[in-house]
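Morning run. Coffee first, then this:
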Amino acid sequence: MSNQLVENLLRPPVELFSAIAYGLLALLSILAPSYFMMTPVVAAACAIGLFMLSIKRLLQGYKIVRYQHGLKRISPYVLNDKNIPVSNLKLFLGMGFLWDQRHAQRLADLNRKDGRAYKEHSKLFIWARSFELRHEKHGWFLLYLKAYKSFIDFLDKFGWFPPFSLLKWLFLNSPLANLPPVGGEPSLHAVGLYEGERPVSMNIADRVGHTLVLGTTRVGKTRLAELLITQDIHRGDVVIVFDPKGDADLLIRMYGAAKKAGRLDNFYCFHLGFPHLSARYNPVSSFTRITEVANRIAQSLPGEGQSAAFKDFVWRYVNVIAQAMNGLGHKVDYEMIREYGQNIEPLVREYMTMLAEKHDPDGYKDKVKWIQGALKDPDNKQYRIAREMSNRDHAVIAIWHYCKEEGLFDAIASSLSRTFEYDRGYYDKLVSSLLPLMDKLTSGKVSELLSPDYLDQDDERPIFDWATVIRTKSIVYVGLDALTDGEVAGAVGNSMFADLTSIAGRKYKHGVDSGLPDTVEFKDTKVSIHADEFNELIGDEFIPMLNKAGGAGYQVTAYTQTWSDVEARLNNKAKAGQVAGNFNSMIMLRVRETATAEMFTKQLREVEIDHLMTVSGATDSSDIDNDMHFVSKTEQRITTQQSQLIHPNDFVSLPKGQAFALLDGGKPYKIRLPLADPADLVDLPSNLTAMSSEMRENYNSSEDWYNFTPSFDETSIRHSLNQHHSVGAA
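And here it is:
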């Protein structure tokens, strides 16, 4: 069949008839060789040859039957964690095949009138679905469904026995059995089943070029994330997962993979929605340049139109505070920035006092005290208080005058002085947009989470930073609770990305052990970053991570629904294109937006599609002396036309859990993702059990897109594991 000009798979499996004929002839040759006038030796040789031909034709017919069956129904693909292949060279994605002209041709044949019958379900199947709808609430029907499920479970327990396995397949694929609730067109994957599936993987070396995953809600993005994260954890990479909205299944799967890989000691769970259970993290404590602190806070403020000027004032104000705190040797955090943002006088006094003590430890106090008294004397013109500083504390003005007279100002003191000289009410108006944001970041339990007290020994929640996470090869789950407060989630997420980018620069230039003694050495490792709903997180700080962090071993996998979400977030189409250009690999599940699908299809060349056309005609003869009264003719013509290798509409019709992927420098693959095995779920410690249960109840964002897979019931957990990191890291 491979050497035929036109491949025809939409036909009866005639190979089976010849297989039966060859088999019967082989049997007759053995049982009655005399009828064929053959000696027993010759009959045996002929029987062997005929039997081999029968097997060959049987396999050919089976491939046709399997292909046509798959056009309507594809069996589920379940893979447990222990069978997920983990390699240092390849990243497993699922089962599939390389998409080429053959599959585009078969899909075009199916969409013609002649192929309609091979896509439509039988009348028995349609009757069975109608019967279910009419009787779904009847008690006897519910008992039947329960018995049917019990029978399938019984067969599943003995799946190692071939007859039981075959019987289960027949029941699940009969017209009476319902289809899995995945929707879409099964034929999109079935067109590759004629040659068969194989494991599809991408090169680990290509991951530093970053991967983009696109797909509408509840089509399998989270399951794909679980699959990739599980491999990264077992491979030993640093794994950082950003989950803006919160998915309990993702957290549970991460914990289970960490437990099986023996990495629970380095597992951290950070969640803004559960600060009393979460690990703690200071988003502004780590930086390469002190200006990064102001960048991370100011980037969360609006910067369009007239707001741009106020954003610049806020940036300068925060930068002055951060420089002064760093100069004093204090740990920079949100709480202190909010405190000094409301009133900068205590910071001015502390910094000026430090300068004065260095200059004259014993004598500066008397001088400052004398200046403070002179400020109250209306006749003393030298220390007359300017109108702009009339509402400032006299003690602070006195130490400020002293440092100014003694010429003690350094760059930080000069910046503080210029800020201090402003009218307090006027400056408060200029930086008014800062305080609402800081109040959100420092209110209630969130303050303890984002501004941790490093000296509080009674608080057992661990504190982590990205440098330590990378050095210890840790696993971090970051839940940002974006459904509750998107502004805080965005601010913290952007700060984390900026912090990671800063660490990447330091790691690229000086190595992972930068700043440590020479006797301490850490092996370099890959940092796998998974950003779910990354359109909620993306900002200006995300672009440098994609551009430059690959050299530091960062490999980003970003998940989002449509590319328009990214353009809307950045509010700049050119910048969105800049982001898209940094993703070398793309995996696209079902999408509802044609423009998003065209991001994939426009990167593929067109191919020639064959079309078999039947032409018939008749010509009569007007010559009465000619015995031939008419001439008829029927012929078949093969024409070709240019067509897209994959049409954008094919992405709209993808079943749940299936995807197209651009890998290995732009080669298109068709893949289907494996289903999770519920037996892989492990018991959680009490803190994560409570967190995941509330996440399921409040967020309801789990992508359990195959309802026939049993869901994990949290109430079945009977005990808690011993906690390694107490509350935050299990």
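Residues 63 and 195 are 8 Å apart (CA to CA). Good start to the day.
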